[in-house]
From TrEMBL:
Pathway: Secondary metabolite biosynthesis. Pfam families: p450. Its main location: membrane. Heme binds at C388. InterPro entries: Cyt_P450, Cyt_P450_CS, Cyt_P450_E_grp-I, Cyt_P450_sf, Cytochrome_P450_fung. This is Cytochrome P450. PROSITE patterns: CYTOCHROME_P450 (PS00086). It comes from Hermanssonia centrifuga. It is a single-pass membrane protein. The lineage of its organism: Eukaryota, Fungi, Dikarya, Basidiomycota, Agaricomycotina.
Amino acid sequence: NLCKREYQRRTGIKRSARLPPGPSAIPLIGNVHQLPTEYQEKTFFEWGRQYGGIVYAQLFRNPAIVINSVKVARDLMERRSANYSDRPIFTLLEELLGWKCMPTQMQYGERYRKHRKWMQDTFLSKPVLLSYQPIQRREIYILLSRLSESPELFETHIRGFVAALLMEIVYGHKILSLEDEYVELAERAGTESVLVGSPGSGILSLLVDFFPVLKHYPLWLPGSGFKVKTNYIKGLVTRFLNDPYNMVKEKMTAGTLTAFILAGVVNPGVFKKAQEEIDRVIGNDRLPDFEDRKSLPYMECVLKELYRWDAAAVLGLPHRSMAEDVYQGYRIPRGSMIIPNIWGMSRDPVQYPDPEEFLPERFVDSSKPEADDYNPRNFVFGFGRRQCPGQLFADGNVYLVMSNIIATMDISRAKDEDGCEIITTPEFTSGLVRHPKKFQCVIKPRSEKAINLIARMNLSV
Ligand code: HEM
């Protein structure tokens, strides 16, 4: 209730500052009716093309800032991180599904900072990361031997690999089989939580984030099926709650690795070129290791392109502004949901011509002054104080799995009954975490020597 002048004196913000441009809203609903139920990142991207790098929208009565530009995302969530590191409250996820105490959802403050420090000590410190390497190697050798024995189950093997690795590192729980009860529980709790927010679960489950009162909707009324479902999932989640990282990161890592196989099928030339580099630098008598990474520049370009092309966390995780702010002359209201359209950033046609193509060559020249800013590894893991604490670990993993698969396996197109090659068009799921839809391919060990090498490495760990 401050007068205009007093408000400006205290906050430095002109009351008259305009909101950023954006699509026109209608009363009560705001812009929600303009959002499709699937692939919302594409609509956000279109808004970016129409209105610029920073777009204002209203999701019911909640202000939202959609960011399609890496620069704007950095300016706000990194350079002004003290104001942009909170998270919006998601009623569905936190209260109805029971994920409230996850660090991903935690409100910014003293308690969060303590958790963050713990997460950084666990996943970002060099000595700790080094101590994980023997486990990573061992699990990768197991993955390679499973791939050579039953390559058609490659997606199951990749998921099993990621689950085993994270379970052992986070809990010290060693997974011996894919039927492990804990893996199954983690998988079900995560998958069902992501699915319940999808359109198939009914409009109530989507609305409840914007009208939290709906969580009290009586179970016997029509449309309340979602509540029965959320109660069931809450049971799963509660049983699994001691795991601080479970829900999305497993899917992101496994999805990224599967996308790499897909990229190999769609673009066999890239796979061949990476294989030639490994043969030349490492040879066929041993497998690539962490220390080899700096000697494999083409592989590094493949990795960057994989992060860009797949952009697993399409909209990142939204942040929330804690106080009103002004940016580029626009007013950003307090409590705005800040949505970084990471997928949109990865499709910037100026930085990445032909953005849907998988072209590692676009990263070969790293001498451009803005190369660092547009290195996808520097934005697919999010921004500022909420940036993914698992990124170094995940990145090391993706590198090692990719280089070991390239060194030992050939990937090619599957054939139909008439012996004709099946041409795969890459398709990705919609949702919080994007991963490739089912596709066919042939994976087989490159040679007898590769099979023996895998067997030898399995015995050595
Ligand atoms: C390729 C794999 C991965 C990708 C692409 C990824 C991406 C992301 C992104 C975009 C965010 C949101 C950052 C933000 O709010 O600005 C995030 C947060 C987070 N990630 Fe990851 N992540 C991956 C793997 C992992 C792994 C392996 C772990 C743990 C072992 C992990 C743990 C977390 C946690 C705890 C947060 C929440 C951080 C916070 O709110 O402070 N992630 N991740």
